[in-house]
Amino acid sequence: MGCTALIVIDMINTYEHEDADVLVDSVRAALPGVDAVLRRARAHDSPVIYVNDNFGRWRSHHGEILQAALAGKHSELVEPIAPDEDSLFVVKARHSAFFETPLAYLLGQLGAERVVLCGQVTEQCVLYSALDAYIRHLDVVVAADAVAHIDPALAEAALRMMERNMAASIRPSHEITFDGHD
């Protein structure tokens, strides 16, 4: 049986974009859930992969992206869930964590058959990443209390779409396990 990998989407964020003010409160609410799934994954030595936008800074690497976010106006949303020394990091340029990134290859090398998604934005990057995981025949779990949204109605619709159209398991972080399929 393959492993389960946790994919943390766009949580290393400077919050210097058009929707930041609307997003911040939702991120604040999702932060305990993100922290919970991170702790569970790390406790079971499951791969933790941060997939993050580079904010158009094409010469950046993960350390620079993290430092920019920690120096940003909402560092309190980044610091508690920052990557540790064992975390993996993939830089993305578009909505999906898979679009023109090495993520699918990395998951194959890790033997991952199941991914747990958390992060932001539910109705955008999380949704498109779930679809791309599903079409790659990965089992998809979304930590419902560990995703942040811009538009609550669209986020709810996105979660329903992931469940219905992508066979995603939508569950609270405390119900997600990393020691086998739950």
Radius of gyration: 15 Å
Biggest sheet details? 6 strands, parallel
Shape: globular
> How far from one another are the termini?
13 Å
Strand order of the largest sheet: 3-2-1-4-5-6
Note poorly predicted spans: none
- H-E string: EHEHEHEHEHE
What portion of residues is helical?
A: 25-40%
Strand content: 15-25%
Oligomer: single chain
Average pLDDT across residues? 92
Quick take:
This protein has 182 residues and is of the alpha/beta class. The chain has five helices and six strands; from the N terminus they run βαβαβαβαβαβ.
Q: What would you note in describing this structure?
A:
The protein is of the alpha/beta class and 182 residues long. The protein has 5 helices and 6 strands, in the order βαβαβαβαβαβ. The longest helix has 24 residues, at 20-43.
Could you outline the blueprint of secondary structure elements for this entry?
Blueprint: E1 3-9, H1 20-43, E2 48-53, H2 62-70, E3 88-92, H3 103-110, E4 112-120, H4 122-135, E5 139-148, H5 152-165, E6 169-171
Parallel strand pairs: 1-2, 1-4, 2-3, 4-5, 5-6
Helix pairs in contact: 4-5
Provide key terms for this protein.
alpha/beta, 6 strands, six-stranded parallel sheet
